[in-house]
Amino acid sequence: MTELQALWAALVLYVLAGSLAIFGAVLRRQPERTVLILLVAGLALHTAAIVLRWERLGHGPVITMFEILSSNIWSLLLVYALAYWRIPAIRATAAVVMPILFVMMGWLLMTSPTEGHLPATYHTVWLYIHIGFGKVFLGAVLVAVGISGVVLLRGTGYGGKRFARLPDDSRLDELAYRFMALGLIFESLMLVAGAIWAQDAWGRYWAWDPLETWAFITWLTLAFALHLRFTLKIRPRTGAVMIVAVFVLAFLTFFGVPFISTAPHKGAV
Amino acid sequence: MNGFDGTEFMGQTVKPPDNPSVMGRGAPRDLRISRLQRALGALASLKLTLAILAALGGGTMVAYLSEARTTWALVLPLAAFSVNLAAAVATNPVFRRQTALLMFHLALIAIVLLIAVGRLTYLKGQLELAQGQVFDGQLTQEESGPWHPRRLDAVRFSNQGFTIGYAKGMRRAATRNQVAWTAPDGRPRQAVIGDQDPLILEGYRFYTNFNKGFAPVFVWRPRSGASPQLGAVHLPAYPLHEYRQAQEWQPPGSRSPLWIMLRFDEVILDPEKSSEFRLPTEHRLVVRAGEARRELKPGDAMHLAEGVLVYQGLRSWMGYTVFYDFTLPWLLAACILAVASLAWHFWRKFSARPWNPPVS
Ligand code: HEM
Q: Which atom of ligand 1 is nearest the CA belonging to B1?
């Protein structure tokens, strides 16, 4: 099986898992085991696709938009599948999380899988450390977004009954903010590792280039959300909106800024 | 305790005075202290923290989007940040109960202060050295903080030549530059540095950069009888200015500029295959002085009105970026402390209580 065939097969399995989760929520059924098996099988094929490409090109999936999207879909799903497996109470959040990943998969299908050139500054272990931390950060925020999505949907007439079986809003809010706390730790690690790398690569640890600026704004927004929550005792629904805001900023930082930036710091993680 | 509102101090509640008019200059000591406490409490307000975090975000956007000098947009919120945080650390009892949280916030203050000190004392500059040339403290471009302790004059190292591979499509790979210097113990030292591996001397970090090219070297013997001088003319960067390998140059002490151009026919960096930066095997050096024009080979001399120019041969030159910021290791330590205490804080907090306790 070639690298691309493995990838397309993985995407098919993800779409099946996601569709099943969405139908499950709509029809109030819980095909949880099947969803988990499909996700794990998809991840296995996806891992094979990434490994094959890594072997062929001699570097990780970190250069082209195709590689960046593919590796982020992989890492987001890995983190989400772990949360899905370990915390059965929130499995219904898959109906919120999978559509977000569908958008990324659609985008992946539209990008060209041609190879890029690994810049000289990428020959360092910091590349993988920095990117690895970033992936855990985004994965943690994605799980929080899934939970927040449920809280927000419940506020509408539509979601009220369909997500009735999950724990109540204040507990979901607590769990979502635990994932945001994890996100804060890993985003801080990502920023520090990035600064160490930038010092070596460009002779400065921080220069407010577009990617750095947007990552910092995301970090501040996350700090703001945590403080807002204990200072003003906001309701779970407001907390959920803040989590979605952090995710949107993080998403734009990872996948939007590299398109408009002309700075050498191209690498969308 | 959640939501500190400025009325709690060191764990004890401070009651507002019954009669505010007694708070004048002659107010009893404990009342004056309580006024100080209230002022500190207001500075430590967590609602203020929210406003400051928002202002810092706004300031970052202003600095990012505007072309003008916008240091204030970051410095003002960061100053407010430090005052607010310091006041909270001093007065908010949460920090006395939760050591990890305290350590995290103290590390945040340390990071802000270290960055401020770093900006006041940093230096960033550029320099170029021909092969064999010794750095003499001179930079071609520089910017620095007002308190930079200028110690560059004490730094000496020489460029011993470099190699740079290019992949197909003229993609630059790693630069390996051999440098030599004398260690403080008097022993000669050598190292290979690159774009990502600096030479660190006296706290200055020297990195190679993408700038490099060819440098014809001359001996200039002035007719005035002054002693002969060696001069390396750095032609525009190669391959960036591949078709503009010419430069005006004024020999030391002379009044008339010379125009120098390097010509060669061979392909040095081939976009079709991988290659390596090197000097051309054969070249001509065209020198123009007013109306006079000569093509020189190594060893040739050109007699001019103000002296004799002897062409020694072609070498390469390398561009360097130099960076000084003594706060770097401290900043890294503060960052590691911040992240570790943040992780410790959340670990303790979350392991103490499940997120979904069973209803009893
Ligand atoms: C002006 C600056 C700041 C002040 C005065 C401040 C003050 C405080 C205080 C008093 C608490 C304890 C609240 C409680 O448990 O009741 C706290 C918690 C916290 N702060 Fe800050 N803080 C500041 C800036 C920041 C920043 C920039 C971050 C960056 C991420 C941050 C992250 C946190 C975190 C993670 C917690 C713990 C939240 C939790 O346990 O759920 N703080 N802060």
A: 16
